[in-house]
Design goal:
globular; mainly alpha; 394 residues; disordered N terminus
Length: 394
């Protein structure tokens, strides 16, 4: 069996989560609740609280991204304490996230510059508040420009939002959550001490919760990673399916608390945190159900690996595609079922093509980044070796 096939199931899950976010935003743009057929609305295929089918619930799928990211990031670090390896991972994290983030801001700026964004024209036709408020570009001060997009790709990691691409708000918490996960891995790495590990993880998760619930989910995942690594924990198909179904049911909640509670100045931030934490529980259950499913053998899934490799780029690029190509099709053909179907097919094709190119660049960048880090580590090791030989010299 190909060793790399061991995690093809998680690559597939990552890819499905990315596609689900695309569908979620496409529905928000072109199929809001009041425009949908009764049957479509009854199936939960419109973006309207309090119920939304988990496979098209974008916020829920984002939590799955964070669970998978934290698991992959700390898998090799929880077995034994390795401060050097953790420090290297921390150092690499920002440059690892930056290239695709930069692409995600520059492309919308370029589309705006050539007049290929149509979200403002189409939003009144579809009645989509999301397309009006979150599609396209929404600068708070200066007019959008390419240099501004370059600056924004760095600034958004501190600010937590981007006027160039609305989905990039998660990059701040991806960075901070991954750093919190790496620190947690360093602290609890080594022999298993269940009670102590649990206590430390709870304390660190509570601290991370002050930043965002997604960061707390990253920290909680590290504990699972430690106890899943090198373990024989497997679930029979029935038990795995129960976990997955329960996770999907939990993930089908969509802003379950009344909006008045979320807007309350005293408890609103707690309500929003609880909303994300509920999704996090569902995401972890799906992760466990998928990853611990008992199989006689793990198949080799090249398509799953490809989908997983494209997932980050698909997530970053799909909103500009919806705001330009898809909105343009609806604008030119008129708003109706035919134009929405054509726009959906075009969104899938264009997002996939752009993601293939962007992920290729990202793969090259990761290779160069890893090479640079290895070179620095090798030089430092060689320097320490020379110093040691000099100290031992007679």
């Amino acid at each position: 069996m190909n060793k790399s096939a061991r995690y093809d199931d998680l690559e597939l899950l990552r890819g499905i989560a990315a596609l689900a976010v695309v569908v979620y935003h496409f529905l928000q743009a072109f199929l809001p609740h009041h425009k949908a057929l009764p049957l479509v609305a009854a199936l939960g295929l419109t973006v309207e609280r309090p119920f939304l089918l988990a496979p098209v619930n974008g916020p829920f799928m984002v939590t799955i991204f964070f669970v998978l990211s934290s698991y992959a990031l700390t898998l090799k670090l929880v077995e034994k304490r390795a401060p050097g390896a953790v420090l290297t991972a921390i150092t690499k994290r920002f440059p690892r996230l930056l290239p695709l983030t930069l692409i995600g801001t520059v492309i919308p700026a370029a589309l705006f510059a050539i007049g290929w964004l149509f979200n403002d024209e189409v939003a009144p036709l579809t009645g989509s508040e999301w397309l009006r408020l979150h599609g396209g570009i929404h600068p708070s001060e200066n007019a959008p420009w390419i240099a501004g997009a370059l600056f924004d790709s760095v600034q958004l990691f501190d600010r937590g939002w981007s006027p160039y691409n609305s989905v990039l708000w998660t990059m701040r918490y991806e960075l901070l959550g991954s750093l919190a996960a790496l620190f947690t891995a360093l602290v609890i790495a080594g022999p298993r001490k269940p009670l102590l590990d649990l206590a430390i993880t709870v304390l660190l998760a509570m601290a991370a919760l002050k930043v965002h619930a997604l960061c707390a989910i990253c920290v909680a995942t590290v504990l699972l990673t430690k106890y899943l690594r090198n373990s024989n924990v497997t679930f029979a198909p029935r038990r795995a399916m129960v976990l997955i179904v329960c996770g999907l049911l939990i993930g089908s909640t969509y802003k379950p608390f009344p909006e008045s509670m979320a807007m309350d100045p005293d408890i609103g931030h707690h309500v929003i945190r609880m909303d994300w934490l509920i999704h996090g529980v569902g995401g972890i259950m799906i992760f466990l159900g998928v990853h611990c499913w008992r199989r006689a053998s793990v198949p080799d899934w090249p398509a799953a690996r490809l989908l997983g490799r494209l997932s980050f780029a698909v997530y970053v690029l799909h909103v500009p595609v919806i705001s330009s190509l898809a909105s343009g099709i609806v604008y030119w053909l008129g708003y109706g079922w035919l134009s929405v179907i054509v726009a959906g097919l075009a969104t899938a094709a264009a997002t996939g093509a752009l993601a293939l190119v962007a992920s290729g660049f990202d793969l090259w960048w990761v290779g160069r980044l890893n090479w640079a880090v290895r070179s620095v580590v090798s030089r430092q090791a060689a320097h320490r070796g020379l110093q040691a030989r000099g100290t031992d010299a007679p």
